[in-house]
């Protein structure tokens, strides 16, 4: 079984979660989805278009900086 890898956006979100001391469960509740769905977004299995702006806002991530690194 192949190990799943985080996308560039997933890496940025995960690092920021650690910096601000939040869990994926907490973030998922704040954006109104499940931890499983959030995990799918971080691994690129779902686009997350509906949630990305809210995730960036909650975590204080500049969306333009994400686009430059993606």
UniProtKB/TrEMBL annotation:
<dbReference type="Pfam" id="PF01381">
    <property type="entry name" value="HTH_3"/>
</dbReference>
<dbReference type="InterPro" id="IPR010982">
    <property type="entry name" value="Lambda_DNA-bd_dom_sf"/>
</dbReference>
<feature type="domain" description="HTH cro/C1-type">
    <location>
        <begin position="13"/>
        <end position="66"/>
    </location>
</feature>
<dbReference type="InterPro" id="IPR001387">
    <property type="entry name" value="Cro/C1-type_HTH"/>
</dbReference>
<dbReference type="GO" id="GO:0003677">
    <property type="term" value="F:DNA binding"/>
</dbReference>
<protein>
    <submittedName>
        <fullName>Helix-turn-helix domain protein</fullName>
    </submittedName>
</protein>
């Amino acid at each position: 079984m192949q190990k799943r890898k985080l996308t560039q956006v997933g890496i940025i979100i995960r690092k920021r979660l650690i910096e601000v001391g939040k869990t994926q469960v907490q973030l998922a509740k704040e954006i109104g989805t499940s931890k499983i769905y959030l995990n799918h977004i971080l691994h690129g299995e779902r686009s997350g278009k509906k949630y990305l702006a809210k995730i960036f806002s909650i975590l204080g991530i500049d969306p333009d900086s994400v686009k430059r690194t993606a």
